[in-house]
């Protein structure tokens, strides 16, 4: 039996032996912008998971997600809800004692999942959001609500919408950008980048 490498002499079953690492997924992550993610430096201490504000709702905690990437467990990683629950707050990244960047790992895996055509409500939401921004240059929340959740979502949120409108926080009419031409040019530039 191969003896596990220990950290400060403490044996941990969480750490992946070199021979169990599968570099394919790690390399994909590197190629998708995770070049500074330092995936292999992870010692599975769990500090990232401990500080994550969205951990309660995640099916794979940041620590586990990094482990799955090391092991090359594509299916578990790509189907994980964690990808869509991460709010990119960078708390995990700023706290990691080994310089691993779980946020970058998650962002990269998310890009791979989108490329692989993984269906997810968050992807649909993001697509609708981008479409509406491209169309008007500014978000009209009731329109987003209608496109994303249908008439039922709009009716369900009507009371809140009215309250927000009365407080001047929501416009009952679609707002307009002041300089649509400039906005369109900036958008084209950003997309090219
Ligand atoms: S804090 Fe860093 S080293 Fe610890 S489990 Fe998370 S990614 Fe790995
Ligand atoms: S970046 Fe994502 S995974 Fe990391 S702490 Fe924030 S929400 Fe959690």
The CATH topology label of the largest domain is Fumarate Reductase Iron-sulfur Protein, Chain B, domain 2
Number of domains: 2
List all distinct small molecules, including ions and cofactors, that are bound in this structure. Answer: iron/sulfur cluster
Morphology: elongated
Given helix and strand content, the structural type is mainly alpha
CATH class of the largest domain: Mainly Alpha
* Reported CATH architecture of the largest domain: Orthogonal Bundle
Intertermini distance: 50 Å
CATH H level, superfamily name of the largest domain: Alpha-helical ferredoxin
What fraction of the residues are assigned to beta strands by DSSP? under 5%
Order of helices and strands: HHHHHHHHHHH
> Treating each run of at least 4 consecutive H or I residues as one helix, how many helices?
11
- List low-confidence stretches: 1-12
- Helix fraction by DSSP (H/I, runs of at least 4): 40-55%
The Rg value, from CA coordinates, equals 21 Å
Instruction: Please tally the β strands and state the result.
Output: 0
* Biggest pleated-sheet summary: none
What's the overall average pLDDT, rounded? 85
């Amino acid at each position: 039996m191969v003896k596990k490498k220990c950290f400060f002499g403490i044996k941990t079953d969480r750490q992946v032996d070199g021979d169990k690492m599968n570099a394919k997924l790690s390399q994909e992550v590197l190629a998708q912008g995770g070049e500074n993610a330092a995936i292999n430096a992870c010692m599975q201490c769990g500090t990232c998971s401990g500080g994550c504000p969205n951990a309660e709702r995640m099916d794979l905690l940041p620590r586990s997600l990094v482990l799955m990437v090391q092991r090359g467990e594509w299916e578990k990683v790509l189907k994980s809800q964690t990808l869509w629950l991460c709010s990119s707050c960078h708390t995990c990244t700023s706290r990691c004692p080994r310089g691993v960047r779980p946020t970058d790992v998650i962002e990269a895996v998310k890009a791979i999942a989108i490329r692989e055509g993984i269906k997810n409500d968050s992807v649909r939401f993001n697509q609708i959001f981008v479409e509406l921004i491209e169309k008007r240059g500014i978000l009209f929340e009731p329109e987003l609500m209608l496109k994303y959740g249908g008439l039922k979502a709009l009716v369900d949120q009507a009371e809140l919408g009215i309250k927000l409108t009365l407080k001047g926080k929501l416009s009952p009419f679609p707002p307009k950008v002041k300089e649509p031409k400039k906005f369109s040019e900036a958008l084209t530039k950003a997309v090219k980048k």
